[in-house]
Amino acid sequence: MTATPYPVSEIVAARRPHRKDAARNFDALLDAAREAFAEHGADAALEDIARRAGVGIGTLYRNFPTRRDLFETVYADEVAALCEAAAEPTDREPWEALSAWLDRFAGYMVTKRAVREALNGESDIFQTCRESMYAAGGPLLERAQRAGAARTDMDFGDLLRLVAGIMATTFEDDAQRDRVLAIALDGVRTGR
Amino acid sequence: MTATPYPVSEIVAARRPHRKDAARNFDALLDAAREAFAEHGADAALEDIARRAGVGIGTLYRNFPTRRDLFETVYADEVAALCEAAAEPTDREPWEALSAWLDRFAGYMVTKRAVREALNGESDIFQTCRESMYAAGGPLLERAQRAGAARTDMDFGDLLRLVAGIMATTFEDDAQRDRVLAIALDGVRTGR
DNA sequence: ACTCTAGCGGAGGCCAACCTCCGCTTCAAT
DNA sequence: ATTGAAGCGGAGGTTGGCCTCCGCTAGAGT
């Protein structure tokens, strides 16, 4: 529970209202939106989100004047959590540490696909998210590369997209997804 | 131009009307839909598709009573073309032949993402498509495996999803996409 | 306790896309 | 050439999500 170590964490904090009831509604809306986007994709009905959160549609629009606003905030909130996960100190092997974080990243991406494609890269917030993400996860790859455990002709962006792409696909079952992800990561790993 | 070598080819052929004007409209609608789906995703407006095709909305609904019908037919049409590409005889090395076909597959998937996610696996036609696809492309992988050029602890389905997932993601530029795809395929390749 | 203001909620107008329906047109079989 | 049936198209009713607006509620400072 450290204080906003990444710029992306500020994005949500800055929007959160001060009054108690308003803050509660804000949180409820964010939760409801996350859930609805995961379930129905990017074009989930805003009225449904308000209903899930137990607030009026007016309250939703006050907090998030546009659909895009809501997307951005949900997304930033997720990314902030992910960054904090990467920052937690670990005593694991370089490859293990990287691979464990990628698993976590993969888990988030399963539900975040819809949001990502809706914002489609044309957002300021996107830039901030990317920076925070790189700051948080990049060192994990670099450490693995220095240890000779990961190929050096790729960068962290390549790696994220590789994993994100695989997670965005539907598989027959989780076993197949894991198998495919493992094969792809075999292309990344060196030594061993 | 051989006669419907794969079951999937029958799907479209069976729907195509016999009267000359009707057949022309059917083809125009399919083209327009393919284009619209690639451009606007799965929720392209049907009225817009009819307009592109230069036919009335009534004609669209007569040929494709539901949105799903249209999706399925467009998708089946694409898959049929892809299967024919795999069946063309080649004198290339096993790995080269596989890899070249996967490139073609990748190209199709770029635009087909929307359709795939809309049908979301819950379609009879999907099953037929998969069978034809496996019949067409599976031998390419098997040949590479027998030649010791591809790992044997994966099947053709794993491979397709690996490629499909990567192609479904957005990249900074085509170079990054190619780089990432190459890394992933390094995980598949053996020997060399 | 009092006040005053930030915040609440949902009725209702707007609009865009869906889909039906039916009078007109065009094909092709005889 | 005739004719009847297959096909055409788009007007318009229907649905459902979007967003505004304003009278009411309840938090927080004094």
From TrEMBL, chains A, B:
<dbReference type="Pfam" id="PF21597">
    <property type="entry name" value="TetR_C_43"/>
</dbReference>
<protein>
    <submittedName>
        <fullName>TetR/AcrR family transcriptional regulator</fullName>
    </submittedName>
</protein>
<dbReference type="InterPro" id="IPR049445">
    <property type="entry name" value="TetR_SbtR-like_C"/>
</dbReference>
<keyword id="KW-0238">DNA-binding</keyword>
<keyword id="KW-0804">Transcription</keyword>
<feature type="domain" description="HTH tetR-type">
    <location>
        <begin position="23"/>
        <end position="82"/>
    </location>
</feature>
<feature type="DNA-binding region" description="H-T-H motif">
    <location>
        <begin position="45"/>
        <end position="64"/>
    </location>
</feature>
<dbReference type="InterPro" id="IPR009057">
    <property type="entry name" value="Homeodomain-like_sf"/>
</dbReference>
<keyword id="KW-0805">Transcription regulation</keyword>
<dbReference type="Pfam" id="PF00440">
    <property type="entry name" value="TetR_N"/>
</dbReference>
<dbReference type="InterPro" id="IPR050109">
    <property type="entry name" value="HTH-type_TetR-like_transc_reg"/>
</dbReference>
<dbReference type="InterPro" id="IPR036271">
    <property type="entry name" value="Tet_transcr_reg_TetR-rel_C_sf"/>
</dbReference>
<dbReference type="InterPro" id="IPR001647">
    <property type="entry name" value="HTH_TetR"/>
</dbReference>
